[in-house]
Amino acid sequence: MAALCDSFTLCGLGPSGGVGLGGGLLALEPGPDPDHVLLTDRGRTATLFKVSDQKPLGCWSVKHGQIITCPVVCNFETREYIAVHDDKVLRIWKNTDINLDKVFKATLSSDVYRIHSLPYGGPIVLFKGGGVRTLDVLLEAPQQEIENIISDEVIKWSEAFMDGQQPVLIFTTEKGGDFFVYVQKLKMNNLHKYKLEQLELLKPLSFTAYIKNQIITLLCLYSNDSVYKVLIPLQQNSEEEEQILPKSQLLKLSVSGSVLKGTSFVVLDKDHIAVLGSLAAPGEESKECLTIWNTKFQTLQTLKELPLATSGQLWCYEEKFFFTHGKVLTVITYKCETSSLAAAVGKQKDSQTPDVSSFVNWNTLADEELVVSLQSQQSVVLKSESKMTLRSKRNSIAKVQPDTLSVGQILLNIKDTSTTVFEEELRQLISKARMPDFQASIGCVITALINRCKTNPKYYPRNFLLHIVQTQDLSYSLCPDLMAVALEKKDVHLLQICLQRFPDIPEEITYACLKVFLSISEAYLQRIDVNLESVICYIDIEFNNKEVKTEIVENGFNAELEQENIRNTEITKETHLTADCSFCPVGPQKAALLNAVLHSAYNEVFLLPHLKNLPAQQAVLFLRYLYYLYVKSSEKINTALPGIRSPTVSQIMDWMCLLLDAHFTVMVMLPEAKELLSNLHKFVRAQVRFYSELNKIEGSLRELQRLNHQKDSQTYSIEVLELI
């Protein structure tokens, strides 16, 4: 359940407020500490507040005649503040600075729309023409040319997230009544454009979004007093044309016949949203109020009437709501707990929360109850109504009847329809998130798509299948034919996503994926969109998609040990070692696909017989890549590769041993594998020697630690300890 708790005034907004917010509040952003917020007024002032004390910690203003044109933000890494005034002038200062005329200044070449600051991704600058730059790149050349991406479109809203270690920016634009969505992945420099599905005579009023499992969930508040949900997978084919994003209704803002005219809203957790707006009841004067809704059970959880006017803006940080109320900035704390039906309908007792059971919109609950109701209505009609009445009743029931059909009946009805109608019906079926046995139903949908692929070899709905796999929690057992068709089509992107998300893939399919990945040419893979997040942090990629040479510092490398075992000169030896270790033997796309295989679950008893069928050249290539990963993971003390879903040392070693068990005889006989096996052997032995030396001093280190615990060193001293 959710509840509103204590409220207090943070500051005044009029000239007597004492914080320079007489021009109204432009934005509220988080400060350098969790208890700090940064306020920007619609003029020339920014103020830092400590929320718990309701006191300003600092206030900065630009000169008269200058105007701050986008919200001031904090750089969480440097604890500096960043502002833009007059659209193009960038200012950066610290907490100790007083006069903004004397702080860092840079004049940019294009107008700035907004700056987003991420705790671990740094500040991101979005320009009004749609161009995006990180602050570091922008400061290297402030007058650099910024591309104009959106032409005649106008940006309406933007937000930034961290997807693992990669910053992601999303913004919406409007042109001639059409709304578009842009998603920019900064590290990979990928930009995707989408078009929002139009609703007749309706337009979006406000947006908010969040990211989870590489899927952006965009929520749109529309003028028909409803909140719609749009799912945007981050992994998309870069060659695809502009897609139309379908939407599904998440919530209808109606309360016992009254309608909430929302102006802004925020996401609280996976089941709750807060909406600020005016509640209009028939024949009564509308009242502004703050509400919290449960999207899972379609209920209003709590509301608070606001008798004074608001600006229609709502912010939420650290479980606190911030909004203007009259001439003050009001703060209300809230709490959200795990959703339960008892709490949703107001049956769960809570002294702090009024009973809101009367606000339940029962029309949106339980589709099963609607089916029973329709069946009972139909039986009564057949027994008691005249033929004319019966005909009209049947027509009214028929309009609702398709929603009550089972998944199997719907799939049977649309089996012979055209491709366009077929996919549209399936999309509508998937959008019904509250239907019973939802996961099993999704499996039936995929099976229907696969069966159509088998009957029509030219038909392959790649994007639709990708969307389903990325947005639903599926498994191999729910759709066993999906990966088989993807293997037949050599759809490596879909196979990669399946390997990452399916927990129960058979060893035979895992081997088939490995064989396909190793056999496809690098040139072909460069034209395909593949998720590179598992390799982008340890394989440096230039614009031509070739790896950049990096220095290798091996954990456990011992030059003296190498001299004991090699007859060649030291220069020749180091040259061979660098050639094998410092360059990845495969391109980044193939490396990312192989990493997906390394992450998949398997039983070596069942996988080993299949691995023995792997062609020798592919086995050598795979072993070279595993050796490269092994050396890379040994560069640092923590022996962990950076990035998302990067292979662990245990996974690398297990696959290396498994591959050698399956192909050792062949490896020994192949000339091209001889040097690889020799280098691998020497590298492993060097590490064994290195860790053996560490084990020798383990006892001394423990004794030193014991002595330090025994002594109470209250005064300064210097001691010399001899390790024997």
UniProtKB/TrEMBL annotation:
Localization, UniProt: Nucleus, Nucleolus
Primary site of residence: nucleus
- What keywords does the record list, in alphabetical order? Activator, Nucleus, rRNA processing, Transcription, Transcription regulation
| Keyword set includes Nucleus | yes
Q: Does the keyword Ligase apply?
A: no
Where the record annotates domain Nucleolar protein 11 C-terminal, the positions are: 409-723
The record ties this protein, via SUPFAM superfamilies, to: WD40 repeat-like
One GO MF term on file is: RNA binding
Which intervals hold domain Nucleolar protein 11 N-terminal? 1-335
The GO biological-process annotations, alphabetized, read as: maturation of SSU-rRNA
- Cellular component terms per the entry's GO annotation: nucleolus
Give the matching InterPro entries: NOL11, Nol11_C, NOL11_N, WD40_repeat_dom_sf
Which PANTHER family does the record match to this protein? NUCLEOLAR PROTEIN 11 (PTHR15633)
Name this polypeptide is given: NOL11 protein
Species of origin: Rostratula benghalensis
